[in-house]
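Researcher: Please translate sequence to C-alpha cells.
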Amino acid sequence: MKKTIVLTVVLAALACVAFTQDKSKRPSPPAVAEGAIDGVKIKIDYSQPGAKGRKVMGGLVPYGEVWRTGANEATIIEFDKNVKIEGQALAAGKYTLFTVPGESEWTIIFNKKLGQWGAYDYNKNKDQDALQVKVKPGKTDFTESFTISVDKDAVTLKWENTSVSFKVSKG
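Model: Translation complete:
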C-alpha cells in the first residue's frame, strides 16, 4: 500500500514538472509576432527552429510536404477582424498556420483545428481548412532562426535564404 502511494505521488510530481516545463529552454524556443495591418490586429504564436548548419528548405523542410511552419506545436495565427489573404476572404479568429513549401511556389494554409502538434495529423484535419492561397518565395540574406514578422501589408516568413510573404488587408 505504501509503495502504491509513493509511486502515485512520484508520478504526480513528474506530471506537474512536465506540464510546467519552461518552453523557453527548448532548442526551438517560442516566439510571438504581433502587429496590425489595415487596422487588423494580428498575433502569431510559433517556435523558432535554427538552421544549425543544416540545409533547411528542400532538406530539413522538404518541398511538397505540409510543414507546421515552425517547430514543436503547430503555429497559431489570430486575426481580430475579418481579413483578406491574397485577396481571398477569411473570417476573424484563430487558425493553425500550415505551409507547403516549394522551390517556385508555396501554399499557405489556414486550418480551423487548433492544438495540433506539428503537422502529423494534418491529413486527418485538412477538411478543416478555412483557406489556402498560393504565393511565390523569394531570396533573403541568411537567417539562422526561423522568423515570422507582421509587416506593413503582409506577414513574412524567413529562414535560411528563403523569404515568403502573404498579403493581408481588412476584409
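Researcher: Any highlights?
Model: The two ends are 63 Å apart (CA to CA).
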